[in-house]
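Mods, move this if it's the wrong board.
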Amino acid sequence: MILEESLKNAPIVRKGEYNYVIHPITDGIPYISPELLEEVVDRMLRIADMEGIDRIVTAEAMGIPIASLMSVNTGIPFTIIRKREYGLEGELSVQQITGYSSAKLYINGIEPDSSIIFVDDVLSTGGTLIAIAQALRQTGAHLREVLIAVDKSENRNAIEPVVGVAIKALCRIKAHPDRVEILESMGI
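Not the wrong board. Structure tokens:
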């Protein structure tokens, strides 16, 4: 359980009223070890239903290492929802609102009727995930499942119905000002 042990020792900084956990999987700081990344992806694949999935989708930036290794391990291609606009035909713009920032994300290359699994590093307020789920529906794709490495949300029961699919997290945490508390672990 490299993930949980490393979270217990992660530094926490305040961003307004928000306790921000700085961790290799969620921030790339100080670095992402191959062992940690392999554990996260192996555990995600144990709890995922990959049957019939056409595409792995993630948001820039910290979901990219997870989606990359998952794609290599499954042979399923992945798409990155980017922070940069390209102006391609069919490009969708998504307003990302997190607990500490707001930005636009851009979706390209999602085929109608494709079956998608969305993977990401962390779930906090749910703002990004909700916006992405709604935008993916606009493409005509079918979001089948959401896999998250670290769930630090306090309102997951309210987020899941809006997203419309199960949110599976490897671990659920509470970020206190001085420590990280592991509330639940999954996929071990």
